[in-house]
Amino acid sequence: MADHTDRQRACFNVSLSYEQTRLGMAFHEAGHAVLSLAYGIRVTEAEVIAWRPEEGGWRVTGRTGHEANNISPWHFAAMGAAGSLAQVEYLLRYGLWTPESAAACAAEHDRELAVDTLARHGIVLGRDHVPEGGKSWGMVRGMARRKVTHLWHEIRTVARALNERDRLTGDEIAALTGLTNPSFAGGAA
Predict the structure, then answer these.
(1) Separation of alpha carbons 67 and 36, rounded Å
(2) Which of 186, 151, 162 lies closest to 63, judged by CA?
(3) What is the DSSP string of 32-59?
(4) 18 FRET partner, CA 20 to 30 A, in 88, 98, 101, 169?
C-alpha cells in the first residue's frame, strides 16, 4: 500500500499471529479515529485491510479517512502519532510487546504525512529536533500519548468493532464512543 507520496509503506515480518497482527492494526486505526474526533477532525471512515499476496503469507494495513478544517496543526500531528502509540499500547496490554513487534508499529508514513501537511501551512515539525518556532515529533508524540491514555476505553471499543467488521464510518465510531463527528461545516454531524 502506498503512502501520501505514492511510495510503498514499509513492510515488516512479525512473530505475531494473523489475528494478533490484525487486531493491532485495528488499534492503530482506532487511535487515529478516536483522537481525530476528540480534536474536532471529521472522520469519514476507518478500515483494516488484509490480503494474501502469496500462498502462505498475508499482509495487513489500515486507513482512516478524515477531513480537517480550522484545527490546531499540533492536534492534526498528534492524531497522526496516535495510531502507532495505540498499537504499541495494545502490544503492551496484551503481553505481545517485543522490540521487533514495537518496531513494526513505527508508521513513518504517519509522521511524514504530518511533517508534509504542516509544512504546506508554513509550520515546522522536526523529525528529530525542536526547530525554531516549531515542535519535534517527540513532543507531538507526548501530546498524543496523554490523549491515547485518557481515551483508551474509546480506542479499545472502536478497535474491537473495527476488527470484527473491517470498516466503520465516522458516524459509527462517534456512536460507539460518544464523541462528536463534526460536519463538513463544523457543526455536529
Answers:
(1) 9
(2) 162
(3) HHHHHHHTTPEEEEEEEEEE-SSTT--E
(4) 169
The two beta strands, 42-51 and 167-169, are antiparallel
What does the alpha-carbon distance between residue 13 and residue 143 come to, in Å, rounded to a whole number? 29
Which three cell numbers, joined as nine digits, stand for 90?
495494545
Rounded to an integer, what distance in angstroms lies between the CA atom of residue 117 and that of residue 123?
A: 9
pLDDT digits (tens, 9 = 90+) for 76-108: 999 999 999 999 999 999 999 998 888 888 888
| 38: its cell numbers | 476528540
Tens-digit pLDDT profile for residues 43-52: 999 999 988 7
pLDDT at 189 over 50: no
User: If residue 176 lies in a helix (H) or strand (E), which one and from where to where?
Assistant: helix 170-177
State how far the Cα of 56 lies from the Cα of 65, in Å rounded to an integer.
30
